[in-house]
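Thread: quick sanity check before group meeting

JM: Hey all, I'm pulling together slides for Thursday and realized we never actually wrote out the predicted structure for the chain we discussed last week. Dropping the sequence here so it's in one place. If anyone has concerns about the input, flag it before I start.
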Amino acid sequence: MRRATGLIWLFALGGCAVASTLPPETVARIQSFYRLHAIEGQGACPSPELLGVVRVLGMEERQGTVRLRLRYAYAGESVMEPELGLVRRCSGFASREFVLDAETGAVVAMSGPVRRGRAVSPR
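JM (edit): ok, ran it. Output follows.
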């Protein structure tokens, strides 16, 4: 059985009760991809960390991919005055779609704002 199929069974068996449950390795892959590419707050939070998945809003398997729509918590820092070293904390909740390769589980794309030069939008 492929990993993605196992992931689908995880959701099917638990129904709504697994709304925020993903395998730890999947969450770690999503966090790593997000850390490399995401921005939040219209660029005011240029290097956020995905703190955790709050809810799985949807899941779809198609064309060799698994698409997860997630609600998550994030936090980071934004340098307001670089010469003075003033830093502002940014945090909040947001939603994005993450696309995983169905065979490997690797995150290959995500929706939402990304750092300049990082084209990672799902197709």
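AS: nice. The helical segments are 3-14, 24-37. The radius of gyration is 16 Å.
JM: adding both to the slides.
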